[in-house]
Amino acid sequence: MKRVFLDTINKEDMSSLYKWFSDTEFLSSYDYVLPIPMSKEKVDKMISEYNEENSSIIFALRTTEKNIIGIAGYYDIVKDNQVATLFIGIGDKSYLGKGYGKETLNELLNYGFDTLNLYRIQLNVISFNTPAIALYEKAGFQKEGTMKEFVLRDGLRYDLYMYAKINKN
Fold it and tell me: Best label site of 8, 22, 26, 31, fewest CB within 10 Å?
């Protein structure tokens, strides 16, 4: 039974996004840039830019009860090459480790391959994010490269892995 779906981000969702993007623990795994809490204005600007650019799409990740639990989508969409970079961020910690990431990934893959007509979907993941790495590999993503010691977290260096999945259908 389907428990999550991709939806538009609305004004009522913004309080959750403000909370997540001010949480350094969430930001630490969400992106490879330094996890600095974002102001409401900066979050508003980020969401606005995602919605205005032709090279990105962002979704609210919702449970079937319509609760927002995260965000997901694509950036660096290159339509001519049928390529895009996928991202997932589950901000509501009570949904972590319960299969919602897997369901979100499946929704994004279906959307990317079927709706966006992508040939290649790629992503970046920090080496310490072992649950995400296991999920991506189980879904058929292939590791294509390593940027050695690219990420600095709490005084330690971590590799950044690049993965991709090709639509062979």
Answer: 8
